[in-house]
Amino acid sequence: MARPELLEQIYTIVAQIPPGRVTTYGRVAKMTEGATPRMVGSAMRHLPDGHGLPWHRVINASRRVADHGGATRQRDKLRAEGVVFDASGRVAAERLWP
To answer: I want to staple 20 with a disulfide (CB 3.0 to 4.6 A). Which of 24, 27, 81, 90 is the partner?
Structure first.
C-alpha cells in the first residue's frame, strides 16, 4: 500500500475526474510524487466505505475496465455517465482526462 501522503495525492486527483470522463492508473500515478500505476489500483481497491470518490472513472492503460470483482458495476456506473464502450470494451481516447 502507498504511503499516506501518496494516498492523499491519489485521492485528490481521482476526486477531480469529471463525470463522463476517465483516466488511467498510470496517468494518476504520473500526477503524484512517486506513486506507481499498481499503487493507484491498490488505492482504488481499498477505499473506505462511504468515501464518495469516483473510483469507477479510473481504467487501465488500454482504456478498458480492469478485470476485477467490481468490473460490471464499474462499467454500469460509467455508462450511466454517458461513457460508451466499443466492441472490444475500450473507451474512446477523447474521453480521457486530463
So the answer is: 81
Block residue for cell numbers 483516466:
23
Q: What would you measure as the largest C-alpha separation in the chain, in angstroms? A: 39
Distance, C-alpha 60 to centroid of its chain: 8
Treating both helix axes as pointing N-terminal to C-terminal, what angle do 37-45 and 4-15 enclose, rounded to 10 degrees? 80
Q: Is the pLDDT of residue 15 over 80?
A: yes
Quote the number of domains for the chain. Answer: 1
Taking the complete model, does pTM exceed 0.85, yes or no?
yes
72 vs 12: CA distance, rounded Å:
25
Domain that holds residue 22: 4-95
CATH number of the domain enclosing 24: 1.10.10.10
